[in-house]
Structure formats: structure tokens, C-alpha cells
Write a structure and sequence with these properties.
CATH topology of the largest domain: Arc Repressor Mutant, subunit A
Order of helices and strands: HHHHHHHHH
Strand content: under 5%
Radius of gyration: 19 Å
Shape: globular
Number of domains: 2
CATH class of the largest domain: Mainly Alpha
CATH architecture of the largest domain: Orthogonal Bundle
Largest sheet: none
Structural class: mainly alpha
Helix content: over 70%
Number of helices: 9
Number of strands: 0
Distance between the termini: 60 Å
CATH superfamily of the largest domain: Winged helix-like DNA-binding domain superfamily/Winged helix DNA-binding domain
Length: about 190
């Protein structure tokens, strides 16, 4: 266990690093991470920049309250989860027709020189994965994205989500099974139609 003086020294060093952090350096260091995490949490490609902007607006407002008790990216990911939650609330108001149009437009914009069959397959795969993520739930999807895609440690995820590490290991195991089952159901539905 750390002594109080050792912990205070570490906090003092951390405070010096925090003092050198400014919004521009945080943006530069984390912008790609924010966009990647938003995509992996189900934000459509053409909405990623808007969600990222929301994230950085909140970071700018909350920067003075950042105490360095967790890694910077862990702190930033909390804002990403919140912005994605707000994005999903707004998105639910749209009709399925709008969503299909958006996915097809997105596929044609992302790779205009690709084979149309590849574009259709990619759009269909993306649609299925987003539906699976919605089916398993936002909190579970966040654990899966952080652990499996962003390769964060369980201790970082625990700090971010405020959940016991052992509970997270259990949730990750459960969510992987739920993800596989939901994916199998959706694929079976697609095949039967």
C-alpha cells in the first residue's frame, strides 16, 4: 500500500502534468479515439463529427474539474458514452426508412469505387451489428467496445464506469454470449425472410 507522502508526491507530479494540459492538446491527442469509439458504439459515419463535437464541447466545459484520477482517455470515453446516449435518443425519433436511406448513402460515400455488391454487403453487415448492439443494451455494448475493440484494461473500465472489476469480468463474459446469441438470431431472421 502506498504511503500518504508517496501518494501526495505522485499526485503532485500528476498535477504538474495536468497543468500543462490544455484543450488543444487534449483534442489533438484524443480526437481520433473519440471518433473511433463513437463509431464502435453505433454512431453512423455521417454523424460521428457531430457527436465528436458534442464530446469536445463537454470536455472544454469540464476540463477544470479533471483531477487526473484516471487516464485521460478513460475520462474522455465517459463523455463519448454520454454523447452517444444522447445521439441514440435523437436517432430513435427517426423512422426506419430514414435509417435505411442513411446507411445506403453512407455505404456509397465511404467507398465510391467499390463493387456495388460489396457496398450492399458492408451496409447490411453494419446494420446488423448496430441492431445487435441496440439489442444487448448500451451499457453492455460499452463494456464490449472498451474491452474488445479499444483494448482497455478492466481497471480502466472499472474507473470509467464505476463498477467493480470482478463484476466487469462477469459482464464481459455474459455480454459476449449475448452478442453471439443476438447476432445468431438476427442472421437467422434474415435467412428465413
Amino acid at each position: 500500500m502506498q504511503s500518504d507522502s508517496h501518494r501526495d508526491t505522485a499526485l503532485g507530479e500528476n498535477s504538474a502534468q495536468l497543468a500543462s494540459l490544455d484543450f488543444c492538446s487534449i483534442y489533438t491527442e484524443t480526437s481520433e479515439f473519440v471518433e473511433r469509439a463513437a463509431r464502435r458504439l453505433g454512431v453512423a459515419d455521417n454523424d460521428v463529427e457531430d457527436v465528436a463535437q458534442d464530446v469536445f464541447v463537454h470536455i472544454h466545459r469540464q476540463l477544470p474539474s479533471f483531477e487526473g484520477r484516471c487516464a485521460l482517455k478513460t475520462w474522455v470515453f465517459g463523455f463519448v458514452v454520454s454523447a452517444v446516449r444522447n445521439y441514440r435518443r435523437k436517432k430513435r425519433r427517426r423512422s426506419d426508412r430514414d435509417t435505411l436511406f442513411e446507411l445506403s448513402w453512407q455505404a456509397t460515400q465511404s467507398a465510391p469505387m467499390c463493387d456495388p455488391y460489396e457496398l450492399a454487403a458492408c451496409a447490411q453487415a453494419e446494420s446488423i451489428l448496430k441492431r445487435v448492439a441496440r439489442e444487448i443494451g448500451e451499457d453492455k455494448a460499452a463494456v464490449l467496445v472498451l474491452s474488445d475493440f479499444e483494448e482497455r484494461t478492466m481497471h480502466e473500465i472499472s474507473t470509467l464506469l464505476g463498477v467493480n472489476v470482478n463484476t466487469l469480468y462477469s459482464r464481459r463474459r455474459t455480454v459476449r454470449l449475448e452478442f453471439d446469441e443476438a447476432l445468431a438470431r438476427l442472421l437467422a431472421d434474415k435467412i428465413s425472410k
